[in-house]
Every structure is written in C-alpha cells, then in structure tokens.
Design goal:
The protein is of the alpha/beta class. It has one domain. The chain is built from eight helices and five strands, in the order E-H-E-H-E-H-E-H-H-H-H-E-H. Helix 7 packs across helix 8. 33% of the residues are buried.
C-alpha cells in the first residue's frame, strides 16, 4: 500500500471527505529540501535522511535536491517542485549561502518564504552568512567574528584533526556523522548568534545561520 499522502486534486472529492477514513493509512510528514550546493549540502542532508529512514521512515520523509542555483531562483525551483508534485509537503527548506549575492535578493528570499507559508505548507529560508561551513564550525565553538568563507576551512581542519578525523574538504560525505555528537552544541551556538542578530536582515547578520532550525525540528528522530 502506498504511503504517499492523497493527491491535492483528490482532497475535495466526496470519497475523501469525512472525519473517519479507515481505509486511508497514516501518512508521514514530507519535507522538501532544496540546496544551493550540489554536493556538500546534499551529502550532509542525505546522511540525515538515512539516519531517519533507519527508524522513522513511516513518520517523516525527506526529499533532497541540490539545484546549483541561488536565492530567488532557488526559491522558484522549490515552488515548481511543490506545484508539480502529488505530495503535500509540510515543510519546504531553502538552503543557501549569502556569499557575494545582492543583499536585496538574499533578504527578499527570506521574506518570500514567510509570505508563501500557509497552513498546508511552510517555507523556510535556511541562509548562512557567509557559508554553511559556519554551521559546521558551530559544532565545536561559538563564532561571532565575521570571517571570509575561506577562513573557515583551515579552522575546521584544525578541529577535525584534533578529534582524529582528518582535514576538512568540501564535499566530504561523512561530515554529518562526524559532527553528529556535537549537534546540541551547534544548535545552542547558532541560536545564540540568532539572538545577537535578531534585528538584522540576513544580508547583514554576519556571521549567522538558520540551518539549526531544520536540525532542531529533526532532532527527535536523530538519536542525539
């Protein structure tokens, strides 16, 4: 029996109405994750998906796409996938770095996610200023200096070498499993940064990241 939720086009049909539908199985909560990166971020979230699937595949499902675009374009790709899918996504997560993109695009993407969110589907802008490596770094240490993205790589290598995990490199498929024991620390440090940046738009919140919002929501399924 299919575990997909009912199609959007079927929701108003007579046979789908009523409070009691004994023939309709429990439907898992679907999450769509769209990332700017095509390797680092998809590999990170794919490792999370595998952990969840091992124990909770009937409760929550993640779909992950590394689109290779940025900001507003990335959001539009997510909207296209939502429109073209029979699945009703409860959450749509747009994962992007600020890098050197126009501040207007960075901020507008975050605002559009708020505007598009409704009872059926919620959109989330998981920006990182400047890059997702900030989120990785927060697993080891609270960082509030506005570093260039290139400065995170040697600092991450230093921490990883200290715990016997070799140097950091983009596209490491094992990065989630390495960082997993420190997830609670990362969430706490990211929330502390968020409090510091609470009155700033994403383009000015440097350093800052919202990736913790997804991990905090998924934490009950990650055995951490």
């Amino acid at each position: 029996m299919s575990m997909k939720p009912p199609k959007k086009s079927d929701l108003d049909k007579q046979w789908m109405r009523g409070r009691h539908r004994p023939n309709v199985p429990f439907q898992p909560e679907y999450h769509l994750i769209i990332t700017e990166g095509t390797k680092t971020e998809p590999q990170y979230f794919e490792a999370i998906r595998q952990v969840i699937n091992s124990s909770f595949h009937d409760k929550i499902k993640l779909e992950i796409y590394g689109e290779g675009g940025n900001t507003l374009w990335l959001l539009e790709r997510a909207r296209q996938r939502v429109r073209n899918s029979a699945i009703i996504y409860k959450h749509v997560w747009i994962v992007y770095d600020t890098d050197d993109f126009p501040a207007e695009h960075i901020n507008r993407t975050a605002q559009e996610c708020i505007t598009l969110s409704g009872e059926e589907t919620q959109y989330h802008a998981l920006w990182s200023n400047q890059c997702i490596e900030l989120w990785f770094m927060l697993h080891f240490n609270y960082v509030d200096a506005d570093l260039h993205r290139s400065e995170y790589y040697p600092k991450l290598s230093e921490w990883l070498l200290n715990i016997g995990q070799g140097e950091y490199a983009k596209n490491r498929a094992d990065i989630y499993n390495i960082l997993r024991p420190f997830l609670k620390d990362a969430i706490r440090n990211a929330k502390r940064l968020n409090e510091k940046n609470q009155h700033l738009p994403p383009s000015s919140a440097a350093p800052g990241t919202r990736v913790y919002e997804l991990l905090e929501l998924l934490k009950p399924y990650l055995n951490v």
